Structure formats: C-alpha cells, structure tokens
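Human: We require from you a protein record containing the residue sequence and its fold in token form, and nothing else.

Assistant:
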Amino acid sequence: MAAIFPALVLLLWETLSRAGVLSEDGFSRPSHWAPALVKALGDGTLLTQTLETFGAAFQAVLIASILGIALGAVLGLFRPLERAAQLTVDALRPIPSVALIPLSLLVFGFSREMSAAVAAFACFWPILIVTTASVRGVDPRLLEVGRMLGFSSGKIILKLALPAALPGILVGVRVAAGIAIVVTVTTEIVTNPRGLGHGMTMAAQGLQPDLVWATLIWIGIVGWLVNWGLLRIK
C-alpha cells in the first residue's frame, strides 16, 4: 500500500513527460532513470561516490554520537551543569552547519574529513539534546541505588543512566543519521569535489538529467536502508 502513491506520481510524471508537458532538460522521464542508474553502478562510479558520501556521513554520526552522548549524559545527570551550559548551547546550536564549510575547508582541505566535520557539527545537537532529556528522565530511584552501592559518577552513567536512556538516545542517533546524509551531500554539491553530491553537480553540468535524477533516487534508497537498519537496533 505504501508504494501506491510513489507509483502514481511516477506514472503521472512519465505521462506528462511523454506528452511534452514536462521538459526533458530538467524533468527526465522516470523510464530513463533505471538505465542511467544501472550504467553508473556497472562502471563503479556510483558505488565509489556512495562509499565517499556515506563514509563521511558515518564518520560524522560516530563523532557526534561519542561527544553528544558523553556530554548529554553528564548534563542530564547534573542539573547545575546543564543550566551553566545552556547559554553556550543556545548560542551555538542556531549556527547553520554550512556556514562552517569555509573554516572546515581551511582545516581539512578537499577531503572526506571536511564533509564529516561539517556534518558532525549538525548531528551533534540533536544527539546532545535527546541524550540530556533521556538521562534526565531516568528514574531517580535507579540512580539512588547506584549511589547506595558506592558507584562513582562515571560508573552510574555507564552502568545505569545510559542503558536506561538508550531507547531515547537511539532516536537522536537516527535523526542525526538523516541530517548527516543531507549535510554531507550539501558540502559535496557546494565545494567538495567528491561523493554523490559532486557527481550530481557534474551530471547537471554535462546535461545528463537522467543521471541526476537516478543519483537522487539512489541517495533516497540507500538512506532508507540506513534508517531501516537503525530501526532494528534495540
């Protein structure tokens, strides 16, 4: 049932394209996407670009998860620290991640690390906020048991707070994964000559709308598979 609406959209798109209502220059026919996708996969171009893009996105989520979960757990457990850090978080969080592209370019040059650094900044905030809220929502009696057993603050976080808050934290990581893909592709379109974003730009400049749309659909498919995998992590 879920596939009915996309199928109807593609059918309407194909019909309007064949009727000349939609321009072939910008709205390539859906029937042309599959051959372009197969060709790009066959010569290895699309696979190489996919590894570049999703490798950078994975690196970004990993960095953001380590920093966001660690800091979020501390802030969620110690309310005075959360209040002290609130101004800094509120000041930095609204900064658009793409505004860091020039700075990241100066530090890392044209590389996977450049895209990963920009994406990690964007991913850090949802993970931090969700982790803080999830740890704050842990049953205080559970934490009190840890203190009665003589656990250190670090052990309380690792053994009690984080496992109890894990379902909420995974939601934050899943949201961050989607953000990482969007930001990584954006950096590749804007300035980084690698990955799927750069491939789409080159296809557009080469007047290959079928390849542009095929790559866009491919990004959606791989992104859906990533989200599907994350949903199955318990």
Q: What stands out?
A: The chain is about 80% helix and 0% strand.
